[in-house]
Amino acid sequence: MAGAIDPTGVRKDALDAFLETKLREGYEIETHTDTHAIVVEHAQLKSFLSWLRRRDADKRYVVSVDEHGEVTMIPAEPKRS
Q: What is the mean pLDDT of each run of 10 residues along the chain (81 residues)?
């Protein structure tokens, strides 16, 4: 059933398909609605020293889908502690 923002379900379907791909690529879904999501690409720990320096911090992205089903993914603000 589609919602008021996405009456045909095109946006939800496009986002679901995109998120499935990202999950297979190793991303984690932090949160999502029918039209937006936050995904996280976890950093690979190359060494203990790089972990201490935080050079390999996790990368967060905002994923959104427009009324035509076009999905975009842009860097998100770092998560606040």
A: 77 96 95 95 65 68 95 90 68
